Amino acid sequence: MKYLITIILGFLLLGVVPVYAQDIPQQFEGFDLEGYDDNGEKSWDVKGDTADIAGDTIVISNVDANQYREDDVNLKARTGILNKASGDIYLKEDVVITSETGSRLTTDSLDWKKGDDLVTTDDIVTLTDNGITATGTGLRASPGLQTAEMKRDVTVKVNTESENKDGKIVTITCDGPLEIDQMNNIAVLRENVVAVQSDTMLKADRMEVYFDGESQKIKELICIGNVVVTRGDNQTFSARAVYDAVTQKVTLSGRPKMIFVTEGEGSLSSSVKE
What we know:
The protein is mainly β. It has a domain at 146-274: lipopolysaccharide transport protein A fold (Sandwich), CATH 2.60.450.10. 0% of the residues lie in helices and 66% in strands. The radius of gyration is 25 Å and the shape is elongated.
């Protein structure tokens, strides 16, 4: 990767680009850093209102950065700290990533490693995209958010209808992690997964959520390990469950056991099917 660095100053003395001593801090109005690939095409840029240059770092205010690839992405933050040697940037305060496809991520701080095509944070993050909102603690993702992993304490809310109706919201929680693969329209949740919609609750060790590529609505849920489906007073236990969002039917396998209320208070019936 070849980099072209341009610092735009509020004024240039006699048109001369000065050379700065490493130990003397310098502050300038206006900052523009650009990177180009081997074909001479711009691959990224970083802009800011002011730049404090000292040693190996540049502290930038009101960062506005872009990455230009198959799907462009914009990153903004109140403050950015650029490592001149590696080109990596640490962003903090009101950090927002917006992808060309409409995905949006917000957090308090973020490490952008351009060479590794990676963004990471240990803070709480919120990711929104086409009626889907995911919140969790800790993140490892591609800058364009095509692939992302939330580490722990995850909550996902999915609107299964175009209208914002409470009864059509599916809320899924897990201890983590949550892995999102937008290219394949799948999200995988692990550890103590619980999905709730209206009066139905579904629990499992692992849950795979498949989305329709166009509408981004849930197409299918596959639950694996210690599956419990609770609907009203009735419960079903199995090793695996598949929920079809179109037909709203659940198919159980792995020695399912059903416990349901028949009639009268406390009257229960159960059955086991191989």
